[in-house]
From TrEMBL, chain A:
Residues 1-18 form the signal peptide. It is a single-pass type I membrane protein. The chain crosses the membrane at residues 898-919. This is ER membrane protein complex subunit 1.
UniProtKB/TrEMBL annotation, chain B:
The keyword Signal applies. It comes from Friedmanniomyces endolithicus. It is found in: Membrane. This is ER membrane protein complex subunit 7 beta-sandwich domain-containing protein. Its main location: membrane. It holds the Pfam family EMC7_beta-sandw. Keywords: Membrane, Signal, Transmembrane, Transmembrane helix. One of its GO terms (cellular component) is EMC complex. Residues 35-161 form the ER membrane protein complex subunit 7 beta-sandwich domain. The chain crosses the membrane at residues 158-176. It comes from the Eukaryota. The keyword Transmembrane helix applies.
Length: 930, 233
């Protein structure tokens, strides 16, 4: 009887878990993010000098370099730059006027990228870390045919200035800076290159040393020290060193922000201005905005910020005598503000973004050229939060005395990046999600109420439960009219297949769970898995100081509630639907041992060993051998339901799984011999159930591990020797009580046992290794409500920027080796073992998209058994729904309603046509016999 | 992080070695007629001994360049969004003639095979090697559902059988009418005698099969029961 099933089973296996073309782009969602853009590395630029269309370029805080289309906010291209991992977190992005490349500088690498398509043009490594990169805009004309050259200032042991050829990336000249002064910044005028160094005086103050270089030869033409007296305590007080303008300037203030000093680079005179106080709050920040073009007017704007308000002053530089004069000031406005500088020919325009207004002035006079009121930025904030602009970049076109078009991108305090066109929000990019550090799924509260009410009815006395139920139905009746009104629409939509499953209203399948993301900046952002394109709410939950980091852990303790806890130990609950903080219910992790939970084995990493305690006394310790270090420990998930305790074989016999909720996979590395060891531990007794050693491992490559049900998996990169293979491997192991079918091993007869008291019965482990075409950086597994659905192994492929779902049947360690599968094995779906596992592109959950920088994948069960929700984060955010055993409990998109109705109709018609014929025939026959 | 490591190696080896590798992707119709259409995320990775790894993004001229390679045996993989590329083995060794130059060699390699199993030779050069690599196949991400197709539907054997029987039902009386009167009589006689027709024929039995009686174990009385039911009608 099984024989006819065989082809069916093999057919089913092949397309299992593939991405269907009608589901792609519909059930999955993806935000291709860059991270919070930095003010100094964001600008509008024309990738093709001959066309007027410009793109927004940015190099973000996540070191992602990318181009964004200002029309719809879509990403044109993106490159993730390696920062070198040091704390020296400076990065530069420059684009020369009329150039088709953008030049980035990060770590010790200067690279030029094709502005239109993001391909590398050239790259140069400097000896020390980069301090500044500028583009040389020479005014003499003969040097600037073709690509413009770049100048780089590098620090380290041998600080130097290098001029890099814009076309080839060859170093034209380099100038080594002598002395112990720290290089600070570069500044280029049309005739000279200035290297600005910081000189520490004996008294602890800093002074600015300026070295002027000839841009053609790289020889020093001049050198002098600026007499900044004693007001410059640290380099932090230097506001700005202008570059590439007609007259570059250096500006600094004293520590108390009472005077502003400006020096035109190349001269020694310093202009001093006293800063007026506008309100009782002290000035917290002073920023300088100057045009970045060599032909622009030498005007600049100084932006003052206090805790509650901001204002600005515009200064003009007289090029003939290098005198700086204050031209006009912009009034004080409450809240934070952002200024941006844009140029058109020689004119300079300043655009100001405040909480509720966008305005543009010319640098020459304070008359408003354009003014738009902003009703909202179109982003979700916290309850009662005032959304404020952080920084802005603008592109202005002016006709006569008014602004004819203005496009401004603003980074908001919520972390969203918004484009305003003529004062209206055109698109928003949720860049705060790029720094997501923790994620949890939560059921929305309205879903939960029904479950709670049912619970009340289940546990109350029958009469009360009955009354409760009648009352519930009466309240439900109130929804009947609206339900009836919507009914025809629903039927039509369902018939046409346009409603999808995300139609407003209830979510009976549990697909619309709330995803709460904690970001590095201390915000909590909630997304709806059913409508991921809009943020539900976004609120500040911590009071982080700049540079401070937190390591939150998120959990959904009960439905409708999101609990945030940080290392500090207290958890705060938030309503999942609207983000309201739930007061009065702040569970605090007890400092004292809690008697009710103390009878559990707890284990922690202490130093380089694993220690477990039972009843608050040491229970067992796992110490790796000398020279071995613990890489990671993955326990079986706490909530890991398993529906079947055995695996049914093709001949209807059963292999019993070794199911123990207290097992964990521990990976250790031995650096000296480049070996990796993997142990499966029983976390109650500390017994090692299984161990394996792999030699010749690249321990610097990622070694992800996963444990679920009765199996574990890990991946590593191995080094070649002539008779072995080189590359990336995936090992999968499965634990059984016994390898004999229908046999439960040593513990078979006993109904109760304790690993602490009875000698442990070791599981029988089957393992298999597969070679992969590319490395895996993270492993995860799908989760469903009851664990009936087969599991799917999720692997992050950083090289292909993909998230792949590997069906378990493909990597099953029971695949027969060296022979073809028998009929029974084929019935189970086992194929002959092949050492290479080619990752089928159909398994790519992200399909055509590129999911960059994924660090973690979380899964959650939906309300229906067949489906698991997947959410991946890191830099990009990607989510989808998976049905590893197909959507057996819900009609999917493959269900053709038209076909079904057409079949029914055809049958009805056929019946009507055939009935008289059959009647006539029967009557005829009757007559014939009588 | 990986690049940092490679940088450290770069710094260490830049003085001693000058082994460079340039991999270019030529136009290879029909699979990839225009290599400039490759996504900017296309990159090549050279994996050497543990800790040594070089990564190169695609350049404007459809090449990947690896400057200053240390002496080792490398696995070269090209990762692209839309295409698969074959893996290569790249060996950087000291030149046989004892000069400062190093020899760079490249072969195709096969996953799941021992490292010494080399495939077609891609080239060898002192100091600087330029090789070309072509995609092996395009990635196909989507599984199409077996949608409804009227021709496939008609082609299925069940439907064909149904159509033939429908043709018989409607066609038979027409043929009978057009038949020779003698032949028609002959045919009627044949049908009466035939095992399938008549009240005791197999067809009638099958049509009037008394399933309840059969299930009750009255196998022998089937015929009678069948007769009864036909009379009742």
């Amino acid at each position: 009887m099984l024989l006819p099933l065989l082809p069916a089973a093999t057919l089913l296996l092949a397309p299992a878990c593939a991405v269907f073309s009608d589901e792609a782009w519909n059930v999955d969602y993806h935000f291709a993010l860059l991270g919070a853009p930095k003010e100094e590395t964001s600008f509008f630029h024309r990738p093709n000098p001959s066309s007027k269309a410009s793109l927004i370029y940015t190099l973000s805080e996540e070191h992602a370099l990318g181009a964004v289309n200002p029309r719809d906010g879509s990403l044109v291209w993106r490159q993730l730059l390696a920062s070198g991992g040091d704390s020296h977190n400076t990065s530069f992005l420059r684009a020369g006027e009329g150039q088709d490349v953008v030049i980035s500088g990060i770590g010790s690498e200067v690279a030029a990228w094709s502005a239109a398509d993001g391909r590398l043009v050239w790259n140069v490594h400097t000896d020390g870390p980069l301090e500044d990169v500028e583009i040389l805009e020479l005014s003499d004309g003969k040097e600037t045919v073709g690509a413009k050259d770049a100048v780089a200032l590098s620090g380290g042991e041998h600080p130097m200035v290098q001029r890099i050829d814009g076309a080839s990336g060859a170093v034209k000249w380099q100038y080594s800076i002598d002395g112990s002064d720290a290089p600070y910044q570069l500044s280029a005028s049309s005739t000279e290159v200035f290297a600005i160094l910081i000189h520490k005086t004996i008294l602890g103050y800093v002074k600015l040393r300026v070295v002027a270089l000839d841009p053609v030869t790289g020889l020093k033409t001049d050198e002098y020290m600026l007499s900044s007296e004693n007001e410059l305590a640290t380099a932090d007080n230097i506001i700005s060193v202008g570059a590439n303008s007609a007259s570059p300037i250096i500006a600094w203030t004293d520590a108390a922000h009472t005077t502003l000093k400006v020096n035109v680079v190349g001269t020694k005179s310093i202009s001093s201005f006293s800063i007026e106080k506008h309100d009782e709050n002290a000035i917290e920040r002073v920023k300088l905005h100057a045009p970045y073009h060599i032909n622009s007017l030498a005007h600049f704007l100084v932006h003052y910020e206090t805790a509650t308000s901001h204002w600005a002053e515009v200064y003009h530089i007289d090029l003939k005598n290098s005198k700086v004069e204050k031209a006009y000031s912009l009034p004080r406005v409450a809240g934070r503000g952002a200024f941006s500088t844009s140029t058109a020919d020689a004119n300079v325009y300043f655009t100001r973004v405040t909480r509720d207004e966008l305005s543009t002035v010319s640098s020459a006079s304070h008359g408003l050229l354009g003014r738009w009121s902003l009703s909202s930025f179109g982003v979700a904030g916290g309850v009662g939060e005032v959304i404020e602009p952080v920084h802005a970049v603008s592109e202005v076109s002016v006709k006569g005395d008014t602004v004819s078009a203005i496009r401004t991108t603003v980074l908001l305090s919520t972390g969203d990046w918004v484009l305003l066109r003529d004062g209206k929000a055109i698109w928003t990019r949720p860049e705060m999600l790029a720094s997501t550090v923790a994620v949890t799924f939560a059921m929305p509260a309205d879903m939960v109420t029904l479950a709670q009410q049912l619970e009340v009815e289940a546990h109350g006395n029958p009469v009360a439960a009955y009354i409760h139920r009648v009352q519930r139905h009466i309240t439900d009746l109130q929804k009947l009219p609206s339900f009836l009104v919507l009914m025809p629409k629903k039927i039509v939509q369902g018939f046409l297949g346009t409603s999808a499953d995300d139609a407003a209203g209830s979510d009976i399948f549990g697909f619309r769970q709330i995803i709460a993301c904690a970001t590095r900046s201390g915000r909590l952002v909630a997304l709806d898995a059913g409508h991921p394109d809009r943020t539900l709410w976004n609120r500040d939950v911590t009071d982080l100081k700049p540079g401070q980091s937190w390591r939150p852990s998120l959990s959904s303790t009960k439905d409708g509630v999101i609990q945030v806890s940080s290392v500090a130990g207290t958890g705060v609950d938030y309503n999942a639907t609207d983000g309201q903080q739930l007061a009065g219910d702040l569970p605090v992790i007890p400092d004292e041992p809690d008697l009710s939970t103390s009878r559990a084995v707890r284990y922690t990493m202490r130093g380089n060993s694993l220690e477990a305690t039972y009843d608050w006394s040491p229970s067992w310790t796992f110490t790796p051998t000398h020279g071995e270090r613990i890489l990671n420990l993955v326990p079986r998930p706490v909530d890991d339901p398993v529906a079947s305790i055995g695996k049914v074989l093709g001949d209807r016999r059963v292999l019993y799984k070794y199911l123990d909720s207290n097992i964990a996979l521990l990976a250790t590395a031995h650096d000296a011999s480049s070996k990796a060891n993997f142990y499966v531990l029983n976390t109650i007794s500390g017994a090692i159930l299984y161990s394996n050693t792999h030699p010749n491992i690249d321990l610097t490559a990622p070694i992800p591990t996963i444990m679920s049900e009765n199996w574990f998996a890990y991946s590593f990169t191995s080094e070649a020797s002539p008779d072995t293979t080189k590359g990336h491997h995936l090992v999968i192991g499965e634990l059984f009580e016994s390898l004999l079918p229908d046999h439960r091993g040593a513990m078979g007869a006993s109904s109760n046992y304790s690993v602490l008291h009875t000698p442990a019965s070791d599981p029988f482990t089957l393992t298999q290794t597969y070679q992969l075409p590319e490395p895996i950086s993270r492993l995860a597994v799908t989760r469903t409500r009851q664990g009936i659905t087969s599991r799917q192994l999720l692997a992050v492929l950083p090289a292909s920027n993909a998230l792949v779902g590997i069906p378990y049947g493909v990597v099953d360690p029971r695949r027969p080796v060296g022979r073809d599968a028998t009929k029974d094995e084929q019935a189970e779906g086992l194929m002959r073992y092949a050492p290479v596992l080619e990752l089928d592109p159909k398994w790519y959950l992200n399909h055509q998209r590129e999911v960059v920088g994924i660090k973690e994948v979380v899964t959650a069960p939906a309300l229906i058994e067949s489906t698991s929700l997947v959410f991946a984060y890191g830099l990009d955010v990607f989510g989808t729904r998976l049905s590893p055993s197909f959507s057996f409990d819900v009609l999917g998109r493959d269900f053709n309603k038209f076909q079904m109705l057409a079949t029914v109709a055809a049958l009805a018609v056929a019946t009507f046509v055939v009935t008289p014929l059959v009647m006539r025939k029967q009557v005829d026959q009757r007559w014939r016999f009588l | 992080m990986l690049v940092l490591k490679s940088l450290a190696v770069l710094a260490g080896t830049s003085l001693a070695s000058a082994a460079n590798l340039t991999v270019s992707i030529p136009s290879s119709p029909p699979l990839l007629p225009n290599p400039s259409s490759l996504a900017p995320s296309t990159h090549a990775v050279l994996i050497g001994p543990p800790g040594v790894q070089y990564e190169a993004p695609i350049r404007r001229d459809n090449t990947f360049t690896f400057p200053d390679l240390a002496e080792a045996s490398y696995l070269l993989t090209v990762h692209s969004r839309d295409y698969f590329f074959p893996p290569l083995r790249v060996d950087v060794t000291k030149a046989a003639d004892g000069t400062q130059q190093e020899t760079v060699q490249a072969w195709q390699t096969f996953r799941g095979n021992e490292w010494s199993n080399k495939g077609p030779f891609y080239g060898s050069s002192n100091g600087e090697l330029k090789i070309q690599i072509q995609p092996s196949s395009q990635k196909n991400f989507y599984q199409d559902r077996g949608g409804f197709n009227i021709i496939d539907f008609v082609k299925s054997p069940m439907i064909l059988m149904a159509l033939v029987s429908v043709a018989f039902i409607f066609g038979m009386p027409y043929i009978m009418d057009n038949m020779d009167p003698e032949m028609k009589e002959e045919f009627d006689d044949m049908q009466k005698k035939g095992p399938l027709s008549g009240s005791s024929g197999a067809a009638a039995q099958l049509r009037n099969f008394d399933i309840a009686g059969w299930l009750a174990g009255k196998g022998s009385t089937t015929e009678q029961g069948a007769g009864d039911t036909s009379k009742k009608r």
